Amino acid sequence: MLGLLGLFGALFGGFVADGFLAATQKANGDETDNEDATDQTTDADGDAEEAVDLLHMVMPSYIPTAHVDVPDPSATPDPETESSDIPPPPPVDIELTGEDGDDVLTGNAGADTVVGGAGNDLLGGRDGDDLIEGGSGEDYIDGGAGNDTVSGGDDNDVMRGHDGDDAMRGGAGNDSLTGHMDDDAIYGDDGDDTLLGGSGDDTLDGGNGDDWLAGGFGNDALHGATGSDTLDGNNGNDTLWGFDPNDPSGDDVDFLNGGEGDDTLMIGAGDYAHGGMGADTFTIGDWIGEGEYAHITDYNPDEDDIVVLYDAAAHPNPLVELVTEEGSDDATVLLDGIALATIANGAGLSLDALTLLPSNSL
Asked: pTM of this prediction?
């Protein structure tokens, strides 16, 4: 071992001496090319030899070789290296109750309960299936995402359901209710209300008062209930009820507009029915009674149908007639001598244009 160290020392000493001499010659003006001085040595005979790496010659097995990757601090982390095993915490359900006065209350991502109380409140549910009650006062309520249950309470409220299948009730007052997305159930209750369905297959019920109902997109069901209502089906195959089937004797005049699509118009006494575009079905019946007859304004025999319903117990042998007065372009439908509806431009129609069915067949 000592002999090896001695050999290494001798070689190292010679290397240092040669370097010193080369430096001295350079300092004394020896014009030796720098590249030659670096890559070659000169033996005693003046012949050039390739330089030898002394460390490799003496200790070749002790020279480590490895490739080291140095991370770039400005590089964006690979998202695949981030752990996704830990789920986010579940949303927390909260309860918020306002005080007297005008409150601003907003839920979070859970199934929240938000109660405004007295005053003109601004209430929001955000995500989750929320329960929101306006209470008294003129409130603005936004359900947000989720299947929300929203009620306005007293006074004139504005309500928006937004995403989800929402259930909305206006309560007392002249309210404005809009379902927006998905399949909503919207009830005006008391007052002269505005009910707008939006997209989805919605159910709209005006309740008491003179209401405006518009289905929007989707196949909607619109019930005017009591009062003089305006029902607009808009797009889709809609069903419009101009009377309350639980109390069909009401004689308030409603305006039924089917809009686009193949609509069904259930017509009450004194109502005006306009099918619009599509193959529509105009349904009249003996609930109209001896009061004001209905009006069918745009019957098209090429694509529309007229259905006459009757109570089989009250009319065991029903007789249906089409009567046209002299000089008139309209025709009148009679059931056992009682006028049910006039058909605009219906003069000349035959009984084949009518379909007679007992009420219990539907």
From this structure: 0.75
